[in-house]
Structures are given as C-alpha cells and as structure tokens.
Specification:
Elements (H helix, E strand, L loop, with lengths): L3 E2 L4 E3 L4 H4 L9 H7 L8 H4 L14 H16 L3 E3 L5 E8 L2 E11 H5 L3 E2 L6 H14 L1 E2 L3 E5 L3 H13 L4 E4 L5 E7 L2 H12 L4 E5 L1 H18 L10 E8 L5 E2 L1 E5 L7 H8 L3 E5 L11 E6 L2 E7 L14 H10 L14 E5 L3 H10 L4 E4 L5 H9 L10 E2 L10 E2 L2
Parallel strand pairs: 6-11, 8-12
Antiparallel strand pairs: 1-5, 2-3, 4-5, 4-10, 5-12, 7-21, 8-11, 9-10, 13-20, 14-18, 14-19, 15-17, 16-17, 16-19
C-alpha cells in the first residue's frame, strides 16, 4: 500500500496566485529565470531560482543562493503573498492544455514508501542535481515543487474528485501566459478526506512520472532530519514530501526526439545503407509523426523516411529493449554513429515533442546532420519498467503540461 496524506499547505492569496505560480526550476537556466522574473516580484522563481536576486557573477550553487531562497520564502509569508491553511487538507489540481484536462490530488507521500519501493522509479538520478535540491530543501525547510506521481486508476477516487469539482468553487482558476489553464480546489471536509486517505492506502504502488531528483532529495533531507533528531515518531512533516497524484488514464507522454550533429564520417547514402541493415527504410511524402510503435521517422538531407525495425532487432518480452528509444539506440545510434552513452555524448541533442517536428527540421536545416522523430513512450511502458525494477534509457519521456511551483508549499520544520 502507499500513503498520500493531507497537509496544511502554504499557498498564495487568490489574487496573486497567477503571478506567484512559476514553471519548475529545472526547465530553465539562470539567464532564462532572470528574464522570467522581470517585472514580477511575486514569481516563485525568487525562491526556486534565488540567484535571480543576486549578482549574475554569483554561482547558482553558492551557499548564499540557498540563504536567499530561505529569506525570500519567509518574506513572501511575512508580506502576505503566501499564507498557511489552518488545518490539513487535500487539494485538487487541474491542468487544461489544448482541450485535454488532467486532475490530480495534492498531498504528501511517505519517504518510507519511497525507500521501500511502494513509490516506484524508472530513472537514474545525478548526484550533483540531487545535492542542489537537498541544500535548497534543507535551507528553506520546505518542499517547494511537487513531485509528479501517477497510479493506475481507482474508480472511487475518480468519482470523488469529479463530484467535488462539480459541487465546489475553485480557490484558483487562471490561464498562464503559455495558454495552460490551472484550477485548484481545497478539499477540507473531514469525511471526504478520510475516505481519500483510506482509499489511497488500498492502491499498491505509486509511480514517479516526473521529478526523480526532487523526490530523491526530499527523501534524503528527511533521512538527515531523522538522524539529527535522534528519535522521531514517523508523523513529523519531514517524513513526507509534496506530491500530486494523477490517474494514469488522464496522462499522456509526449515524444522525446533526437538530433545528431554528424553521421560519424558516413555520407548520407552510406548512412541510409547502414540503416537499412536493421530497419526497413521507406521514403515519406512529407513531414509526419510516427503513428505506431517501432516506426521511427528520420529527417535527413531535406527528406523524411520511415524506419521500421526489422524482426529480431529487439526483444519484445523485455520492457526496456522494446522501447523505441532503446531500439534506435541499440541498432543505429551506438553501432552506426558511435554514440554509446547518450547521457554524455555531445554529438546528440534531445528535443521535447511540444516543440513540434518543425524544430527538428529547423535544427537539421541549420547544420545538424539528422533528426529522429519518435513514437511516444506510453504510461503502461513506464509502469511495466518500474514494476520490473529496471531503468528507462535517458530522455525517454516528456510530460506536458508542467506542474507549476508555488501553488502548494509543504513546510518541514
């Protein structure tokens, strides 16, 4: 079973929610963050990327950045930009993008569930990225960005969420500058909260959809505080971390495409010939997204091609090997182009599907050698891999829309 319990969130006053809400800290660099906060003293980036309030010469990982984050968070509470609910609640968070809506329950997940693998992972984390958020969470004594969790659908939870959103007014409802609508309801009725909490305990496992580094960092801060306290009951807030749990049938994973800088010394004709050894290569009339698994679209020399993986090039019974990103890596990128580790090889770039195939064309026409448009990984793929205890290849999933930071903050005093 897994735990998702209510908590007393620190959150924006309604009239400032739109100005406080910010994109996650890790989808931008410092320069972009500085531009985003221009003219907006309420942006939560003043907490999540506090270097924006320091001289540009200051390293984003300098200790004074974390001290500034703590000070900015306290100032936002002191000045009435943020306030804390008087009692624990659940929160419902709906996002609408291009006609698609997804509604999740905001609460606090257990670090013990994470440690005992009732919160399942599918991605490796990098120590330096973990260390940054460990220092940030520890300095602020708060989780400032929610972890994006999913689970297989539960009928009663879905019915309860639908009924609450139909019968109660939201506390926030705004459309951000990127056109994504964000709506939040507070669930504060004791019987409904108790029913939700008990039902979540009947769900065997949660899965991290996005936010592996934030989750790992929150857990490690919780462990640090356990150690420093010497004794603890398990009910202290540092034993839990901020999360939004969405049913998997409401989510969609976008394609995560690849662009390579060169063909490893091959001409375009030689590259297509080599590609044909593992894939059936078919010219396409024009630009189009792959319509099914195991069909990858290649843009090369101003033309589009369909690459259909040949039988025997992958194991259908292996949840990792049957991913299209694995098929491409094992049959083309590594053996033909010599790109053995896509995490570190500077000859490959990754392009989120939200940027469209036009971005692939732009990059290749602008000097890159070739682009590969992928069929998106599915939620079932993700959960099958996590259930098997395996790890996805890098850059396998791209989730949209991104959860906004600053709408819910979980204090861990």
């Amino acid at each position: 079973m897994a735990v998702l319990r209510p908590f007393a969130a620190v959150r924006p006053v309604p009239e400032l929610a739109e100005r406080v809400a910010a994109l996650p800290y890790d989808v931008m660099n410092s320069q972009e963050a500085r531009r985003m906060v221009e003219g907006n003293p309420y942006s939560f980036l003043h907490v999540d990327r506090a270097e924006v309030d320091l001289d540009p010469s200051v390293d984003p990982y300098d200790p004074q950045v974390y001290r500034k984050a703590e000070a900015n968070l306290q100032n936002m509470q002191r000045e009435g930009v943020l306030f804390q609910d008087e009692a624990p609640c659940y929160y419902l968070y709906r996002q609408e993008m291009d006609g698609h809506a997804q509604t999740g329950v905001v609460g606090c997940a257990s670090i013990d569930d994470y440690l005992e693998n009732h919160i399942k992972k599918h991605e490796l984390t990098r120590p330096e990225k973990e260390e940054d958020r460990i220092r940030h969470v520890d300095a602020c004594s708060a989780h400032t960005g929610p972890i994006f969790l999913t689970c297989r659908p539960h009928a009663w939870v879905g019915q309860t969420v639908d009924a609450w959103t139909r019968s109660h007014a939201p506390v926030y409802d705004f459309t951000a500058e990127d056109g994504i609508r964000h709506t939040v309801w507070v669930v504060d009725e004791p019987e409904t909260m108790a029913g939700l909490e008990q039902t979540f305990r009947e769900i065997p496992d949660f899965y991290i959809a996005d936010g592996h580094h934030r989750a790992a960092s929150a857990v490690k801060v919780g462990q640090m505080r356990r150690e420093s306290r010497g004794s603890y009951s398990g009910e202290e807030e540092f034993n839990f971390f901020l999360a939004v749990l969405f049913p998997s049938d409401q989510l969609s994973i976008w394609d995560y495409n690849r662009v390579v800088a060169d063909l490893g010394g091959l001409s375009e004709e030689e590259f297509l010939e080599k590609t044909g050894e593992r894939f059936t290569v078919t010219p396409l009339a024009g630009m189009e997204k792959p319509a099914e698994k195991h069909a990858i679209h290649l843009y090369l020399g101003g033309k589009w091609y369909r690459l259909q993986a040949k039988p025997g090039t992958f194991r259908e019974d292996d949840p990792v090997e049957r991913l299209d990103v694995s098929i491409l890596q094992q049959n083309l990128l590594a053996p033909v182009l010599g790109i053995g580790d896509p995490r570190t090889d500077k000859r490959i770039e990754f392009v989120g599907g939200i940027r469209g195939l036009e971005e692939l064309v732009r990059l290749v026409d602008g000097g890159m050698a070739a682009a590969f448009a992928m069929y998106p990984t599915t939620l079932e793929d993700l959960m099958d891999i996590a259930d098997s205890g395996k790890i996805m290849p890098p850059k396998s999933t791209w989730f949209e829309p991104k959860l906004r930071s600053g709408l819910f903050i979980h204090l861990i005093p």
